[in-house]
Each structure stands twice: as C-alpha cells, then as structure tokens.
Amino acid sequence: MNYYDVLKHHITTGHQVAIILAGGLDFDIAQYLCQETDNSSQSIDAFTHQWNIDTTISQPGGIHPKG
Asked: Distance (Å, rounded) from C-alpha 9 to C-alpha 22?
C-alpha cells in the first residue's frame, strides 16, 4: 500500500510498517501513524497546545513555559 491509500482512504496498517526514504512527507506519515488520537495538526488550538506555542507572544520565543 502507499501513503495516499492510508491518508485518503483511511486504510488500516499493521502494527509494524516500513517507511522507505526519509523526506519530509515520510516523516509526516510516520508521525501520523504513531498518533493514538485525532490529528492535532487539523486544529489550531490543539496544535498550539500540543507544541506549547504561546499565540499571545507574551513569552520569550513564543513558547509557553512548561509546568
């Protein structure tokens, strides 16, 4: 199977997969396959929360302090 089938047609993969190559798309596919919940990249609020991004830019570097 290829990445298009997995993403577009929601084909289920096995517990182990081999991703050939190592470009940006391949990295994105690996991340997609490893996520246990919905894809946070489809929601701005979920994405900024997951990556600790301070959208008010009140913290140095725009990063929320952890903790």
From this structure: 23
What is the per-residue DSSP string for 1-67? --HHHHHHS-PPP-S-----S-SHHHHHHHHHHH-SSS-GGG-HHHHHHHTTB-TT--SGGGBPPP-
Residue 67: which pLDDT band, with cuts at 50, 70 and 90?
A: very low
1 and 29 belong to one structural domain: yes
Q: Which domain holds residue 53?
A: 40-67
Q: Give the tens place of pLDDT for each residue, 17-48.
A: 888 877 777 777 787 777 766 655 667 787 78
